[in-house]
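WARN no homologs supplied; continuing
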Amino acid sequence: MRGDETVALSQANVLHARGITGVRRPTFGRRSRHNCEGVWLTLVAATFLSRWLATEEAHGGDLIAVVILVVAAVKIRLVGMHFMELNNAPRLLRGMFELYVAALLAGMVGFFLAA
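OK structure emitted
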């Protein structure tokens, strides 16, 4: 382990020993390979879904475009949570990211429908 990993683990252990709940111990890249592959396959499938929906957009209009934006927001969330490891981040940081994704989606859909 590197020095910063040892310090972070020590801090998490002290907080856990003091009974402070809600503290997640850092994983430092200990994600399971199966989980990463599953998320990656989901991202690939979502990309193909978006591409397929984009070819159908001329027939479906605004609904398909909004679905494509929702798929994009889900992909942003998956990347943030799993590959940037925000699922192990403090609740405030994770909440800010979740709020960012929701606001981004609402703004993009709002601008699209207003145009």
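The chain has a mean pLDDT of 81.
OK
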